[in-house]
Amino acid sequence: MNQTLLIIILSTIVLLIEIYSETHLKNYGTFLERTNYLFSIKTLFNILKFSSLFSFCYILLKLDRTILDSNLITTKIINIDFENILSYYIPSGIFSLCVIFSNSNELFRQFQGYSIRNEKLNQLAANLKYIVFRFISFTLTFCIFKYTLQNIIKLDLYFSKNNLSLFDWLEYSKNEIDNYNRGVYFSLLLTIIIFFLFNNCFIKKNSNYWNYRVLNFIFFKYFFISIILCLGLFFGIFSILNGVYNIFNSSLTQWISKENILGILPIRISSILIVTYLIGYIYKEVLHKNLINFLVLGIFPIRTLSKYPESIVFEKRETLFFSQISFYILNIALAELFIIIGYKNIYLSILNFAILFIFDDFKIINDYSRGLVSVLPSHFFRIWVFNIIMIIVAMILLANKEYYWILITYLLFTSILFRYYFKNFHLISLKSPFFYN
Description:
Blueprint: H1 3-24, H2 31-38, H3 41-62, H4 70-78, H5 90-102, H6 104-111, H7 119-161, H8 184-206, H9 217-249, H10 252-262, H11 265-286, H12 291-299, H13 317-340, H14 346-368, H15 377-400, H16 404-423
């Protein structure tokens, strides 16, 4: 493929990310307003999110070398071809000219310069301001995409060095000993796509329609919720794919026996229960049993849909359920991490069995109490005994492996979850068993 043509194609992809993000966040207004919003946390995060999605799509396309030459793309994106630097701006330049010629009056209204009295010069000044803004916006988007792609390529190389690929869970060889990392790559890619959809839809449906530039607490709240939900889905999907791989590489009875000896089977069951529970909860409470509208809202740069709930709510009683289930997800994530890296320890077995035992109990307690409306004290006490056990065991495991940053993150997330739990603790009614109906 002609190198200049390849640069133009790649720059067109960057332009699509730029325009999608701009339309999604409604970055319109004067030159200063657009530029300030361009460098805001919301816009930078949005560009990073879309760049990650497109970069993983590149990894998928790279599987077929007739579609993409990975070396050529790495050369033109990771290492910029400064001899053809103007070629990078051809798509952005064409787009800018199309907007100027098709919407010059609106550009004049937004970008006009009040110090120039001559109308033609004023129009020219407005057009030049728009071209400068497009140059800044494209350059910023290109740099973010470049470094995102660079790091995702490094991740892909890391997986390749460890004999992991997107579809390694479908490769059955019957001669592997430790197979507890197969399916990680595909689960990660699927979770990235799900995070993109969830986070897009959450932010759109829960942000102020008019004051959309304002960075408020809701942005961080639903980012956190998206992370937790996707963590649960990632490890649930991974457990299913990895389990299928190991069953076909041995037999069902051998697999169950081996998983029992290693103490892995409980966490497998917990992960599958979590993903089943989460999918049902998300379908009813988040998607409102309307998958098509959710996908449309998550994929396309639109902000509202008719006949669709105005917001997605995680408040008060929902927070009690979500905080507790999220705490289980964090501990499942830790247990699965140690399984993936092949770490075996008696404390890991304790953590695995504690999660499985109390998660099933919590599900039953939550159902019979209608969302913790009325709970027996003994049941509530049991939940919190196991919460404390899981925290202590998780801290011991992470300290033994010297994963201090993961330990700090674990404690930070746990603190956030428990803060919201106890903020709405007054909604839980503890009933004596003698008066329980």
